[in-house]
Structure formats: C-alpha cells, structure tokens
Amino acid sequence: MKYEKAQNILPQDIIELIQQYVDGGYLYIPRKSDNKKAWGENSGIKNSLNKRNKEIFNRYRQGVSVEELTEQFYLTEYSIRRIIRAEKQLI
C-alpha cells in the first residue's frame, strides 16, 4: 500500500467534506470486500508454502525421517510434524 495525495485523486468538494472529520491527518480507506485478496495471494508465498509442505509430506511418506526433514527444510521438529498432520488430513 502506498500513500496518495488526496488532491491528486479526489474532487475538491470531497476533500473539504473529509477535512470536516480529519483535518491534516492520515486516513486509511479499506478495500471493498469484493476486492480483498487472501494472505499471500499477491506475493505467491502461499503457493510456495503449499508446494513445500506437499514435498515434506511426500518425502515423509517415502521414509525420510522427521529429523532429516528438519535439516533439509530448516524447520523445527514441531513444524515438520504439524505440516505432516495437516497434509494427512487433506488426503
């Protein structure tokens, strides 16, 4: 999110109306609910994590130990076990 100058995008009468409530302050205008995006949708991190988690689960099913997975993916044992539990529930 970046800041925009109100005078560059809003008509003067709307600026004056807003100034009655917030004069010289910052105002956050939220997105319409129809335009909201899920976490990680813009950056693609959600897809990357899902792919990583599936890879962890597949390796686990192939016999790779939790300890080996912690070293391969630089995660704690707790995190690896949580991912395995979550992936089991998806199948």
UniProtKB/TrEMBL annotation:
Q: Which domain of life is it from?
A: Bacteria
User: Which is one Pfam family of this protein?
Assistant: Mor
Q: Gene3D superfamilies this protein is in?
A: Homeodomain-like (1.10.10.60)
Report which residue ranges the record marks as coiled coil: none
The record places domain Mor transcription activator at 12-88
Which SUPFAM superfamilies did the record assign? Homeodomain-like
InterPro entries, A to Z: c-mor_Regulatory_Protein, Homeodomain-like_sf, Mor_transcription_activator, YraL-like
- Membrane-crossing ranges are none
List, alphabetically, the PANTHER family matched.
MU-LIKE PROPHAGE FLUMU PROTEIN C
* Protein name according to UniProt: Mor transcription activator family protein
Q: Which organism is it from?
A: Clostridium uliginosum
